[in-house]
Amino acid sequence: MAETIACAICGAERPTELVEKTTVATISPLEADICAACQLVQDHALADTVCMQCGADADSGFYIELEFPLGVTELPGRLTGGLCGDCAADIACRINYEGVDADPEAKEELTALIDEEADRRQTQPATSSPTGGRS
Ligand SMILES: [Zn+2]
Ligand SMILES: [Zn+2]
To answer: Where are the beta strands (DSSP E) in 2-133?
Structure first.
């Protein structure tokens, strides 16, 4: 029976020859048993001038630094990189929406606002504009 080692990041049991006691960019200089696939993913770094999300030129974009628990053994992960303006805006927007989603009161308020807006559109036919600029 082939020997296996559990990868500290993905938790999968891998044949010993595919797991190395090594470090990867996200946890450097810490070492752990990391499988070849996770090494590739964690060591894969784009240039700071390339957007981490879409690969677009992020030269004039945003630089972010994240710390997070990495993988099943919650290694101290760290990630730095660039985001282009579009992706930064997209992520910020998503964080805001999900923040509201996580707050029941705010979510109710938002739902009420959207309903109100929908009602207003129904009672106000698109043909009669309140500013009435046409003459
Ligand atoms: Zn792994
Ligand atoms: Zn991008």
So the answer is: 4-6, 13-15, 19-22, 32-35, 62-70, 75-83
pTM: 0.69
Ligand index nearest the alpha carbon of residue 8: 1
Q: Which ligand is nearest to the CA of 83?
A: 2
Q: Measuring CA to CA, which residue among 94, 73, 91, 71 is closest to residue 81?
A: 91
Distance 90 CA to ligand 2 centre (A): 9
CB burial of residue 13 (10 Å; 0-12, 13-18, 19+):
exposed
Query: Given a cut of 90, is residue 77 above it in pLDDT?
Result: yes
